[in-house]
Amino acid sequence: MEMKDRHSSFLAMEKSSSLLEAMVDLSANMVPLWVAVLIGLFVGWIWKPRWVSLLFLGVRGRHRLVWTSPPGLGVRRFWIALTASVTAFQMLKECWLKFKAWKWPQTQSPEGIEERERPLQATDSGAVNLARLAVGNEDLRDLHRRYYYKDGGLPWELMMERSIPGMTYQAWRREPQELKGPTEYRSLTIFEDAAPEMVKDFYWDDEFRSNWDDMIIYMKSLESCAETGAEIAHWVRKFPFFCSDREYLIGRRIFESGGMYFCITKGVPYSKVPRQKRPRRVDVYASSWIVRAVESPQTGQLTACEVTFFHSEDMGIQRDIAKLGVRQGMWNCVRKMEPGFRKYMVHRKASATLSFSASMAQLVTRVPPSCFNESDMTAWKDEGNEGAQRNNQNGKGWKWIVVGGAVVLACGLDKGIVGKILVFGLARRLSKLGRRL
């Protein structure tokens, strides 16, 4: 019996010692964590906002206010309660406005939106084809510079590399210069056994897009140009549940140079579609891609198609949240392109007629490769901008004729200073009239 008692007491001591050692080890491991928590609280209290001090002062002095205020001073208590309520309301309002501006930043101020839409409002009543003027040669040159890393932007940061049978994908991103504007994304997609003409039509065909892009809930062509293939389209895209849907007014056009297709889409102002609260309109939007044939890694022949994609848009969401959402949802959206493209190839073989968007994709503006040289940039002019440039030149010619005539009248007919002032004033009014004409 004594031996059993000694053995049980020894086991109990051993268990207690092991438990004590575990507690000591746990405490030792928790010391750095508690030190970090205390340092964080100390630093946070030093750098706390002003409203935290006011709130702490109100909570600390509430009991003292209740117990030290003599009974019967109802007016004083009412006044203190009213002042505290107004202060708390202002504090909560300021906090809500700061949180709202942080999570849902405004893309543009109302003044900026009005200035942006004013040029198109002035030409809506005329016979000018707005789709033809939506995308021009400057957009093409800008895309060409981005493709060859000549735009002077920041270096690209690799985000992901993925591949599935029939397609490989790489994606990069970078911040804009001086942190003005949305985050920019660049991707490289290679389709096996694909022709550039078919890939170009696949990206352009809005009528078929709903078969592989589940974010599009509405699309309509608003205006188009039968000569250049330029178009203005109206899109509504579905966003996650915590955001409202987004509305896009997109101008787009396809150029071809040296066997490469430059497909350009960007946000454009269009006053014929009124702005509404929902869906929220995205004003800053640029999404373009370059399609060309490349050698297949498997066969070594020009049977693959390379798509270089550039995208940036101001969705009205806080920058870090937008970057996290794009990173998490990018591959889920991209991997649907490969099976969607194979379905599109079958659809094109079975269909005898092209959809409206696909037929517009056949109207490609061909430009010589020399137009991208820095020395030859001023020599090449886009067809869509010739009319506007001609009107500006005519207006300037009329202005100089009027001013020259005024100088002749002022110097030849009247020698007095008053007469010269009157003649120049009349010439100024006539020049303004010439600009309006």
TrEMBL record:
Gene Ontology MF term list: lipid binding
Record's GO cellular component terms: cytoplasm
Cross-referenced PROSITE patterns: START
Every START domain range: 156-346
Keywords: Membrane, Transmembrane, Transmembrane helix
Repeat keyword on record: no
Coiled coil, from the record: none
Segments passing through the bilayer: 20-47
Protein name: START domain-containing protein
Organism: Adiantum capillus-veneris (Maidenhair fern)
